[in-house]
Amino acid sequence: FHAARALLRAAPLAPRLDRYVKMVNWTVPEGCIGAMRLDSTSPDRHCSTLPHADCAAVDDRGRAVPRRCLAVRRAAGRALRLRRGPLLEGTQAGNFIQEGERLLREFIDRHGLFN
What we know:
This protein is an alpha+beta fold and 115 residues long. The protein is 30% helix and 23% strand. The protein has three helices and four strands; from the N terminus they run αβαβββα. The protein has helices at residues 2-10, 43-48, 92-111; strands spanning 19-27, 57-59, 64-65, 73-84. A four-stranded antiparallel sheet has the order 1-4-2-3. Helix 1 packs antiparallel against helix 3 (92-111). The chain is elongated.
């Protein structure tokens, strides 16, 4: 776990590692969205360069949705793309964490800590 933690701290989080989950027929309260329009050619990439507090999602009109506005509600015909953090799958740090979790489970099973 310490090696994975050191790798995560040493590597800068690249904006390309953010992923966006599309939610169809959901939106946020209209009065809460800031007036900041993102780059129309790639709003997700522009959002990834901003802090999560300022851009936690992108609405269907290409506007940034701050984290404080993420009280989602149903709205037919609307869409929202929620910003998720960086993926660890396939990285060296992710492999260390996965192996550490496997070893911990094996240790618990072998020594009967949760019987």
